[in-house]
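Need C-alpha cells for this chain, all 371 residues.
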Amino acid sequence: MFMPRNTAKKLCAAEKLHWLPDGIYPRWQDEVTGVEGIVLVRGVPESEVVYQTHPMWTPEMDYFLFMARPEQGGLHPHLLEIRTGESRLLLDGNVHFAAMAWRSRSLYYFADGYFHEADVVDSFQGRGEPRVLGALPPECARLAGALTVDASGEALYFGASLVSEGEWGIYVLSLKDGQSRLLCKTDFRIGHFQANPYRPGSLMFCQETGGDANQRIWHIQDGGSAMKPLYQEEGWEWVTHECWWGQDRFLFTVWPYDEERKNKPHGIMMADLESGPQGKMTEIVRYPAWHTHGSPDGKWLLGDDFDRSLWLINGEEKERRLLTAGHTSGDFKTHPHASFTPDSRAIVFSSSKFGAREILLISLPDWKDLK
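Here are the C-alpha cells for all 371 residues:
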C-alpha cells in the first residue's frame, strides 16, 4: 500500500532515513505490521539485491549495487546513485560472477575468460576502463561457487569445476599480480563462497546439491588449516543457508522438513569457529526459517520464510517479531535475500509485493512497536 506523501512523512521515522534524499523514493506501509518503507529500485527489469552474503553498498553508502536483467541476456550489475535515485547498467556483454570489495568501490567480475576490476563510481559516470587481472587457469572448465573478496582487499576467491571429471577446485587470485593459486580440490560441487569480512584468509563455502547435503558448510584458511566442516552436521539436520556474523561466528538455518524434525532444534542457529566443527550450535529462534543475516553491530538478526515474510530478531533476547509480510505476487517466486545495511539501521531486500521485481528498504523500527 503506497502512502500519500504527507501521511508517509508523518508515519515514517524520517530521521532514521536521513541519508536518503526527500521526495525521490516512493514510500509504502505494510498492511499487517504498519511498518513503513521505501521502494529503493523500481522500473528496472527484474531487479534483485546482491546475495546477502556479499557487499552491495559503497563505503559511504552513497551508491548501491544491484542486479537486473537488460532486454536480452542474464542478470547484470547496475548501480543506483542514492542522491539522485538514478540507476545505470554498469557492465554489458558476457559478464559473470560479479562481486564488490568490502571496503572500496572496486567491483570484480569474470568476462571472456578473464577476471577484471572496475571502479563502480567511475563506471557509473562513464570514466576509466576496467583493469584485466588474470585468466582462468587452464585446468578449470568453468567457474563455480561465485566470487568473493578477501577481508584484506588483496585477494579474490573463486571456485571452478575442473577439466578432470568429478573434481572442483578452490582458488585464490592475487589482486596485485593476477596470479591464481589452488587452495584445495573437492569431489563435490561447491557453492556460496563467502570470505570472512573481518578475518583475512578465511573462506566459508558449501557443498551444493540443490537439496539436503550430508555436510553443507565447509571452511578453509589460506595459509592455515585445511578444508574441514565449519559446522559438523548431525544426520537428521537439513542446513539450508549460512552467512558470517562477525570475525568468529556465523549463522545458519536448519529446515524442519517433517513432523519429527519439528520437535528437534531448527530455525536460525549460531556457531563459531571453535564450536561449529565440534557440532555445537546455539538455537536463536525456532521456526521454519529459510535465509538469515545478522546486523554488523551484532545486535539484530533477520529471517525470512516461504511466505516471503521478514522477521526481525532480537539477538540478546532471542525473540522474533514480524517485520513485513506478503512480498510475492502473481507468478513471481521472488527470494527476499534480505540484509542489513552497513550501519545496521535498515534492511534491504527483493520483493514482488507491488506486481514487479523491485528492491525495497525498511528502516529498523523501534522494537517495542513490533508485536
